[in-house]
Design goal:
Structural class: alpha/beta
Number of strands: 13
Strand content: 15-25%
Bound molecules: pyridoxal-5'-phosphate
Radius of gyration: 21 Å
Largest sheet: 7 strands, mixed
Distance between the termini: 44 Å
Amino acid sequence: MTRFEFLRPDLAALQAYAPQPGGHATAAIDRLDANENPYDLPAELKEKLAWHYQQVVAANRYPDGSHAPLRAAIARYVSATGLEPAIAPEQISVGNGSDELIRSLLLATCLNGRGAILVAAPTFSMYAILARTLGIPVRTVGRVEADWQIDLAAASQAIARSEPPVRAVFVVHPNSPTANALNAAEVDWLRSLPAEVLVVIDEAYYEFSGATLVGELAQRPNWLVTRTFSKAFRLAAHRVGYAIGDPDLIATLEKLRLPYNLPAMSQAAALLALEQRESLLAVVPELLAERDRLATALQDLPGLRLWPSQSNFLYARLPGAEAATYQQAMSDLKAQGTLIRATGGGLRISVGTPAENQRTVARLTAWLAARG
Ligand SMILES: *Cc1c(COP(=O)(O)O)cnc(C)c1O
């Protein structure tokens, strides 16, 4: 119920997204709940950005609303793996985080009762959250617990039956929170979807997984890939995401976004990150080695089931546990100084620095032992 007659009644049932339960954590806590890169931007790069702010940015002027230099730099980066044909700047749209792009895609496909979206749970919660704020129905299918493959038969059936029709399917490659990349059967299923269905492939963790479907975009105009600077590139504070797709689809996203959606310093930070990407991404192999060490240490803990990860986070379940137990684990670990995420019926643990990971192992081991 709401006091205000002018508000849509369906919004009263929704809750505001609370990324950090209990508010912003103190400095002393290990923040392993949001899959960010644990390493801040190096001091020299922060100094370069500070110099840019002082010498180049006119604070009284609107930022570049075309994002032209950034779109060109992203197109070069995406094509740098030797893509043929190369991705053009007209195939890139830049958003205030991938979240903005997800919302634009929902506006473009499903508004006014025109369509529903399909997701396979557990997955990134933002698709369903944003859809609900727009009154868009969400069809949810499951996954097979053994390897988290999407229940493809259920997904096909949901598409066949949905009214309004499913206009967009959202998949993450590799998925969050379960950390598995799309397998051959899943990719084949995506290929089998009709051209009237938009396929959104969220590659937020591309720099960690090395897995991408960008090479297929040329043959599949109904596919669109999103990526972000919030994870491997260490720029979560700046909110920069981008979409890669057919020029006509991208032109539609450009119509829907707010005119000055990306602050000048965020554009500058993303450009600098691409220019310095070799040094910035040099920590990726180290983080993957840390992930493997963390997985080895957690693997045999009694009462914990861990799945293989193709990204910078691990997903675990406590066999037989209920949702409240995961919340309890999260708050007990937080009280000891390690913030992880209870989500999707399990625990998602980001890979941190070696010291953070050692504390994660010690605290989780003690927690499981106390649980008995
Ligand atoms: C972290 C994450 C993103 C990044 O979102 P931004 O809005 O760009 O910060 C996108 N998709 C998934 C699946 C993620 O986990």
